[in-house]
What does this fold into?
Amino acid sequence: MSAIKKIQSNAGALNPATRKKRGCLFCQSRFQKKGFAVNQLAYAVFDQYPVTQGHALIIPRAHAADYFELSDAELKSIHSLIMKVREMLLQKDPLIVGFNIGANCGAAAGQTIMHCHIHLIPRRAGDMKDPRGGVRGVIPKKMKY
It folds into this structure.
């Protein structure tokens, strides 16, 4: 691990509350209070424009532009919530038989809110004609191989 990454990792783990960005929706405490699953460093909300029913976003409380800016502690917290939300969704809806997990990092990758968030998208049999290729569908010509 580089010295810079180690410093960022330690700084994020020690006090994520100091990493807030003015005007960032996901940094606002009123938005964070909407979390239906939470832990010290992250929270989960349902996507306002869901791909499928139950589509959730797992978001670090501290500002990080994308996945690659997260500290090790934030990564562990986010993973913990992904597992917790997955379990909640499976208990609530027995038709869920799969998930897509993804993060858009940067405008070229489709990121529109420049605060890291991980999409957890429940999938049900038959929710699309041919799901083969999964996340490869972000570039439609590359989905089928």
Q: What stands out?
A: The mean pLDDT is 88. Helices lie at 3-14, 29-32, 72-92, 140-143.
